Amino acid sequence: MTAASWSLFSAAGCSGAKPPENTTPDPVSVTTAVARIDTLVDRLTASGTVVVSRAADMVVIAPEAATIVDLPKQEGDRVEAGDLLVRFDIVALSQALDIATMAVTQAGTRVDAAKAELAKLSELDAKGMVARGQVDAARTALLDAQSAFNRANEELASAKARQAHGEVRARFAGVVVKRWHVEGDAVIAAETDPVIRVVDQTRLQVAVPVSKADLVRIVPGLPVMVAAPGAPPEPATIALMPAVDSEGRSAELRLGFVGKTALTLDSVVDVEMIVDQRPDALIIPRKAVQRDEEASVSYVLLAGSDNLAHRKIVTVGFGTRDQIQILTGIAAGDRVILNGFDLLSDGSAITVER
Question: What domains, with CATH codes, occur in the chain?
């Protein structure tokens, strides 16, 4: 075989050979955020409802099963402190009053009879016509009758005092916002059967349901802003710190307005509280921080100018739901990687999405 033929044969044989495989992995596409110096603010946002203060909200419920005999105020009526709201005819109290009145009458009759008997026997005694013991017995009977009369009068006074409980008067000036019954209705002593509601609409608060997890972040004195949707915010204060409910999941926080409010009863509002803040903090997105449980350290991956990921151990500080403070490990201006952590390690090739 000539040299030329061998060259052609070699070229033909080589034309079917596979090129060597590329073992370098493709760069991982990542997004990044720049570490920056800023004030890190932890805000708690919630939805609330404008309500009246508990001290300015009066719902009348019958003290016992009763019939309404007087209900002079209508919905929308203005009331002053001391105005009659409702008068009940309480069956048990009415019966007790009738019994006590009858007992006084009977005791009085007994006293009159005892007096008459003593007077008669005393006259006969003066004439020597009766034994001395009969007069003494009549005198004792009169004392007993008078004691019974006094007890009956005490029972009558007590029954009248209890009867006064059948009248309910306004504790403060306000407006009747709801009336559930009319005169002549029978009612029971239960929160499910209210009669009338009076509120002082000048003493408004905001009721805000908060979770147990958020409640531990709230302390009196926090800056609070309240706003109806689309309206300018108004400053408020924490008026009442609640206790967690019986199931331990939520509680109702009460906010008071700093000044006169333009909001109205039952308005739904947005509430924002600044729970904590750290000025001049080095901040990155919370999701950039990863945890190496085996080494018990936190770390981030930086996007280097060499298009490689660089692992940096960091110390974290104060954080919110979305942002976290970095105390050591990186500097302002560093670009932290936000995704692709399962594909990345120290030195991995990356492509930064723009």
Answer: 28-40+279-352 (2.40.420.20), 44-54+200-277 (2.40.30.170), 60-88+166-198 (2.40.50.100), 91-164 (1.10.287)
